[in-house]
Amino acid sequence: MLKNLLRNYQERERQIKINIYKLSFSTMLDKDYLVSFLKKNNVNFEIYRFKEETVTSRQASSLLNIPLNSIAKSVLLMDEKRRPLLVILPGDKRINQKKLAKNLGRKKLRLATQDEVIENTGYPPGGIPPVGHSNTIETIVDETLLQNDYVVAGGGSTNVLLKIDPKDIVRLQNARIMKIP
Question: Do the domain assignments include residue 22?
């Protein structure tokens, strides 16, 4: 009898998780929302759509035959108080979360979970654009990205990329420019 109760409880818990997951995906933003946002803000941009996924900087670089430092990856971090921080950096760089936290006066930074990414940006992991999110997010842009006339970033879906001037990212996100450790 106890086994049956436990099994029923586990099945109910699984169904609740599935429903929450479906709800998250039903409220996600998409490429169309991003395009509308960019047009409304008078941004020059291009959208690239692919059959295959482009969730990594290397995949995007390879598909477009451009250098990794022309790819802008959007990484969502969470601090110790669960406040989101969007870090936009070249595809060939990594973030030292411990040093960045110290530089920003935070105790700790960690990668956001899949649910936190969707909740804070409105987009799936691997498709986060640098602009046009469902919430206002504190944003930092690595200074080296501004050396490019344009960068290619996530386009709101795992198979869509966005070509945009990094100065527009800074303007639209009211981003802080710094050297990302």
Answer: no
